[in-house]
Amino acid sequence: MRSGDQDRPGEPAERRGTSGADRRERRSLADARPAIESAGTVDVEVERLVQGGVGLAFWKRFPLLVEGAAPQEKVRVEVVESRPDYARVRVVEVLRAGADRVAAPCVYYAECGGCDLQHIRRERQLPLKAQAALETLHRIGKLRDLPEPRLVSGQSSAYRSRAQLHTERQEPEAPPSVESPATPTEPADATGSRPPKVGFRTRGGHEVVDVEHCLVLDETLQQALGEVRSAVRRRWEEVQRSHREGDTRQSVPQRIDLLAGDGGRWVAAPLLPALPRGDVEISYRVGGRDYRLACDAHCFFQSNRGLAASLVEAALESIGPSTAPGDRDGDRDAGADGGLQLAWDLYAGVGLFTLPLSDRVRHVVAVEGDRAALRHLRRNVRRRAGRVEAVGRDVESFLRQAVGAVRRGEQQQPQLVVLDPPRSGVSKGAMRSLLHLTPPQLRYVSCDPATLARDLARLDRDYRVERLVFVDLFPHTSHLECVAALRRREGGGEGGSDGAGADG
Known about the structure:
By secondary structure, this protein is of the alpha/beta class. 26% of the residues lie in helices and 26% in strands.
């Protein structure tokens, strides 16, 4: 890794180093830190938004990451967390609003951690997030010759078809007094106990904001939210009765995952009486062709169904040939007219990229280590037997084995590898094996610009980034999905890397 600065998301690179000037700068920062900690509140000018949706400001040259800020505005802030070379602060008063600031449309926004950019004009959110992502790629990855990213967005409300709800026990209601009669928001039982809260985590905390409706949930999950609240309340009443009878083993689940599919159907996990279980079908259209996946609430699937197809198209752009809309599964030989012969879809999940990819490449190996996702992946590719092989292994061990098999001539080297790793990115071991293989083309789909920057830096010696696409899967939040298309540099030869770049 070329930079150890992931935990310093807003600090400019030019402020760090080992020269005499850098040492003096660090001493200056060290002097400023106690001052900011004891200052109470300070007034600062916010320069811009940086990764994580926070504003960047300076107080006596000390970097501040400002929660709840908009660019180019003056705010009064208080310290949330202080570190040696920067501090996290929150806005307590807007002294001069920036041009991008608006009133948040959600009544829960001040507390709920689900969204963090509702105070920014919708049409400005994606450009600001893209600017922050590019800055992260430059700062962490030291990547300077990147192409201009293409920006893709969709609707900004009612877009989420997957959600994670949390529950939290409420303290028993105090007996009312003459001076302060009780006005509970939730009716209590005879013992004064109240039903658990059901909603989302607070911003930066573990408490739960009790939510009755949500701006970004789609119509199906908005209805599901009400049913879940009712089911949790019934479960709580059952638990209360059990506890009174001496059975303390019963409990209310602390987390409930929801997934919406076609036709208004939704499922939940873990199971509660009266909540639907099992699989949903999710349809999407890529390259003029319809695809359908089976999935349950235990599996990961992109939360924004409306842009899932756009994400796939961005990742598979220029990979061909594509099956004509009228063709049936398997009717056309994807490699017959000069297309790619072999592709690997790593971190394949339930097959979001696998199915369209198998219409562009003769053979696809889809690798997934999660049992629930693998079970659905195998079901989803069943009709493509002979064209798609689903492998149940973690990516690092698969790649380690593949390096030896390719060297011995027992396995063909892929011409394309699609990577859609978790937020932590590609592990060092997996990256080392990938650099030994050096396939001609890579497509990297990332939900975290910081780990993408780290991994692109590891790949930089052998690959160049040909195309960047930023997809705004999560409007009103600082999250951004990034797609990078990479091609092996000339002279980078197959298997030519010794892997040193993976850790350097």
